[in-house]
């Protein structure tokens, strides 16, 4: 494994967690190299990538010869290693706990339903994969609850999830929600989220980290 001082990011622009990590790298001008691991081609299940991430999920990074995986772990690591204190405070325990509360909520609270809704409504039909109506119904039932919780708990009376400054929690959450734009999800009832998303889109690195996603949003096509 290459012991480079440059961050090597293994991922796919179609991966929401990959986009979150890439956005943080760009925003903080951290030198990195992007290595595409195509989800559509199933490259994350290959033997070579398994040497980087034995769980065979995206993203992963290699830095100074050490591999790291799980996006929230990667985001925390980048904050510690590169002293991105405003994104994940090493000193303010109360602020850090607020970030961790969201990160712990994220996978089963939001991602489980947002990702399922996106995949079954948009990706599966494009890729010729059968759609589970049972799983789609579950997503339709619980996604509104998740969005309500984000508005009334995590974003209540705040500009960002942990307060008035953006943190790694916001990057994780945003990239999970913006994929729903591809299925023309109606965010109109969620005014707090809508305004927060607009604020996120003004942050440096948004367009670069979401370039491939924005192209799909423009064309409506998912290339195999």
Automatic annotation (TrEMBL):
GO terms for biological process: glutathione metabolic process. It comes from the Eukaryota. Coiled coil: none annotated. GO terms for cellular component: cytoplasm. Residues 92-224 form the GST C-terminal domain. It is found in: Cytoplasm. One of its GO terms (molecular function) is glutathione transferase activity. Keywords: Cytoplasm, Transferase. PROSITE patterns: GST_CTER, GST_NTER. Gene3D superfamilies: 1.20.1050.10, Glutaredoxin (3.40.30.10). The keyword Transport does not apply. This is Glutathione S-transferase. It comes from Dictyostelium purpureum.
């Amino acid at each position: 494994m290459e012991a480079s001082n440059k961050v090597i990011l293994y991922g796919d622009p179609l991966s929401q967690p990959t986009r979150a990590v890439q956005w943080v790298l760009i925003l903080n001008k951290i030198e990195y190299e992007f290595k595409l691991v195509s989800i559509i081609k199933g490259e994350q299940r290959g033997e070579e990538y398994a040497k980087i991430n034995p769980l065979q999920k995206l993203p992963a990074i290699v830095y100074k010869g050490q591999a790291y995986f799980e996006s929230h772990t990667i985001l925390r690591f980048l904050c510690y290693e590169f002293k991105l204190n405003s994104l994940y405070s090493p000193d303010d325990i109360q602020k850090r706990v607020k970030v961790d509360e969201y990160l712990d909520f994220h996978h089963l609270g939001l991602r489980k339903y947002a990702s399922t809704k996106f995949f079954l409504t948009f990706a599966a039909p494009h890729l010729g994969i059968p759609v589970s109506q049972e799983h789609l119904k579950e997503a339709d039932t619980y996604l509104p609850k998740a969005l309500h919780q984000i508005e009334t708990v995590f974003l209540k009376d705040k500009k960002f999830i942990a307060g008035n400054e953006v943190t790694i929690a916001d990057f994780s959450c945003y990239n999970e929600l913006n994929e729903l734009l591809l299925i023309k999800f109606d965010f109109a009832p969620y005014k707090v989220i809508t305004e927060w998303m607009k604020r996120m889109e003004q942050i440096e690195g948004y367009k670069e980290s979401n370039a491939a996603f924005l192209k799909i949003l423009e064309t409506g096509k998912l290339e195999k």
